Queue: 3 jobs
Job 1
Amino acid sequence: MKLKIFVSAMLAAMAVAVPQPTEACTGITLRSGDGAYIVARTIEWGGSNLNSQYVIVPRGHVQQSYTPSGIDGLRFAAVYGYVGFAVEQKEFVAEGINEVGLSAGLFYFPGYGEYEEFDTAAKSSSIADLQLVPWILGSCRTVDEVKEAVSKVHVIAIYPGASTVHWRFSDQSGRQVVLEIIDGRPVFYENELGVLTNSPDFNWQITNLNNYVNLYPGAASVQDFGAIKLAPFGAGSGMLGIPGDVTPPSRFVRAAFFQTSAPQQESAVETVVQCFHILNNFDIPIGVETLKGDKAADIPSATQWTAVSDVTNRIIYYRTMYNSSVRSIDLASIDFAKVRYRAEPLDKVAMEPITAIKIR
């Protein structure tokens, strides 16, 4: 089964003795001058092509959760239609938005958090971590509804030992929360900053920002250094000391700095474009996560796709490692009572389109 192969590969990659392929996700949040609330994120996996798809899910579509014993977990029908981006299997939606403006996404969280152990007696109320996003998108309108829904189920791993994940949920009000499963229990954090990466836990990442209190936008002033004067070499010297590596704590710091220093754009579309530009800084090239002498995956980038959701206007945008052109799906144009369920590759052709300019 393809799922088993994929999860087994992840388990092997996360073993202590084996170098880990990049499994990085970076999320930011912006608001436009006209009030649109925008959430954006990257998804990385440096080990193989995630074969990502977009899924269109109509109201009433029924799914059932995977469990360690089979496809016999929570059975759920979509009250709300939604659009999502799935990895490896169409059931595993990693990011999406529903027709009433709830956004949901999962981010890898290796080495932290702990799910409940699977209890076969509770399988009818057990939901796999990789299917929490589609269940929530089909069931909830607000963050409060998300919290209530999660309290009624058991979040489990499909395969023991697989990496945990944590989640980001945002609603039309602009409220955003992070969910982590700690010692088998759901813990929600209000995410007023709007940034999320991976491990360690969210509280640690927020506390770690205090180590970078010296950062500021713009240029450092000229300083006397004994008999000589020290001056910056160029623009941006106020961010000297910002971490540049691809680890989750470093990406969290950079995302927080770039997000909070970004000038507010007037329109939603301008803000969406701004999110893509900011997240360019988090693209991870193939090779940086591979030890010298090891063969890197045959994909162009570890950053396999970037998604931006206009929560206010219910439009989801994306671009991929194969096509940097931005594409969009407007949920307002979809009749979720009539549309059929579908899952389509994010890219029809796995090659960057290049337009030749004809000079006459």
Job 2
Amino acid sequence: MALSDDELERSTLRAVAWRILPLILLGYLASYMDRVNISFAAPTMNAQLGFTASVYGFGGGLFFISYAILEIPSNLILARVGARRWLARIMITWGLVAMSMALVRTDWQFYLVRFLLGAAEAGFFPGVIYYLGLWFPQAYRGRAISRFYIAAPLASTVMGAVAGSLLGLDGHFGLHGWQWLLIAEGAPAVVLAFVFLRFLPDKPADAAWLKPEQKAWLDARIAADNAGIAAPEHSNLRALLRPAVIALVLVNFLYLGPYYAFTLSAPTILKAATGLDAAHVGYLVAAGGLTGALGMAAAGWSSDRLRERYLHLAIPLVAVAALFGLIASGPAPIIVMAAFLAMMASYFAVSAAFWLAPGEIVHPRAVALTVAAINGLGQVGSFLFPWLWGVAKDKTGGFHLGLSLLPVAFLAAAGIVMALRQARRRT
């Protein structure tokens, strides 16, 4: 008996979601952990290796320079050779480089390994955004992206939960606790790479677990979505010069950089502001990951349900600015903790909606390049802000100046989003 259209739609998307999204989520979880786990290693690593805040901030941000340089080439290769092989290659190399961070002894070694880590990971996130566009119609893409991107806040939960135990291994087999943390959190990426090679299909036509009628429905639905988007540019490079794309680059620059500047020092800041010990700060960061996951899931669901992207960006951007302003004012510890948890929910609500915009602005043939450019160019801010944050810390002796300036960047990003919304409504 043939399925009705509604039953075919539900069964197809259910099969795709259960087969694709858990693998992607685990991959991005490992990616995000290896990107920011030095925030937990920093207090003891910096003290033992003699790194100043400027050295740490510069090295932490160097990741994003090589990441930005190689984003576009990496995504172009992925589109040519297929997601399965290229994402697995990315994961093997970044896992090995992340583990090698435990061997760092000098500031220049720290700079080199962080630069290589960014080069190794480049292309993973925009590659996944492009890949999901091959499997999920626009009406479902917000939920799909939020369900894999939820790994970013959950990475904070995992790191916060296990960091204390890993740091507690200090002295075992002649390794410091921060070395154990970096090795243990780099290894899963290498293992997952082989899982990707075995179980991740490149496109719906390669999925043995989809029935022929499900493949036909999915191809027709995505083709219909693509037909409603602007015709492809004569050259895909021209898509990068569209004002809407440039606006998204600026928004990404302004909301990613300040967040990473804060995140790379978050355990240290929260410990000073709340008086908690390292283990309890880890639990607070873990709780922030959970509120971030809830904010992301809610924003993804709401954005799809209302088919609205821009207010789902602007409103939480303003909320993040207000909450960072509250943290900078130095209120009672309980208020700092509440503001941190609310900030995480608001920040990841932005992330849930942001990556839906490129697919509604440019033609699918240009999405791989456009997403890579938006992510790569925006990541320049993720180098500049942590570096300047470290310089400010060394000059002033504290984090107050940096915290006080973070709201300005988020408010500027919100203003650009609202201008983009007005331009889109006019056209």
Job 3
Amino acid sequence: MTATFGEKIKMTIFGESHGLAIGCVIDGLPPGVELDLEAIKAEMQRRAPGKSKLATARQEKDAFIIKSGFFEGKTAGTPLCVLIPNSDQHSGDYSKLQNVMRPGHADYSGKVKYKGFNDYRGGGHFSGRLTAPLVFMGAVAKQLLAQRGIYVGAHIASVWEVQDKSFNPLGESAELFAELAAKDFPTLDDNAGEAMQQKIIAAKADCDSVGGVIECMAINVPAGVGEPFFDSLESRLAHALFSVPAVKGVEFGKGFALAQLPGSKANDQMYYDNGTVKTYTNNNGGITGGITNGMPVCFKVAVKPTPSIAKVQKTVDLAVCENTELAITGRHDPCIVQRAVPVIEGVAAWVILDMLLVGER
């Protein structure tokens, strides 16, 4: 298993959904960085479960304990170890799932991969619970990026067929990102957000779930960040983003829509603005040739519907090698998109910071 990612700032995540704790070890943070712990707590609360009827009833505060690498309010330059206790495990909810595989989950693939020794409770190490350390890492990265005038923000672009307004591809403000982060349901259009919430509530009432799309943007990223071929910024972002549970698609800029345009429309034509090279459009999402071009870095991720649903589904019982049916009980999100927004922001902030530092070596 590979639970470590990053080059200059490496992070190793650990733990399982229903174990004693989850957490991470962050290696490579420069010494002497003053961290705003209250800001980190606020980021963690954005992802935390149990806050509304739109989320799982599992009560986890996502409180964190910094065990090492932080001294007198500043990073010590040594590995930063963070522990996030699991305080509301209901492991009994999963007792019958040792051999009955949940459709859409990693139960079967994980059982095969790890020869039956995997922790199957709540998905174990494959659970969305493991995104909490990503949010912690992202919160730290955001503070380091802000020192460089770089800001990352995201919103819910869609839930099911309900669409929010899009970011202006030529850039948004740090103030707008802060406003979105302060919302319980971060959309640009509150009316669209309300319609999305009604879709989620309806799906929950029908014992079902829905997915959606998150749009993310980083502003003021300088030109020249990225290490092609295999460490291009797109490559590194895609690698990390696809590591987030339930993410099944990533597109930069106009993404797949570019395939339907002629080059004359797809190309981002250029101009000088007070000595700075800019483009009239940003169809490529601020990245060309795998390297940032100075325009906002923007991308979207597709998040699949929560696979844990109370509807009866067909599956298999590996203990007796028979077909069976399963209706999943327990506490589950009818839609995980809203809680995934700070996760996507965090991953983007971490990867961009890491690649900036790689370019400065």
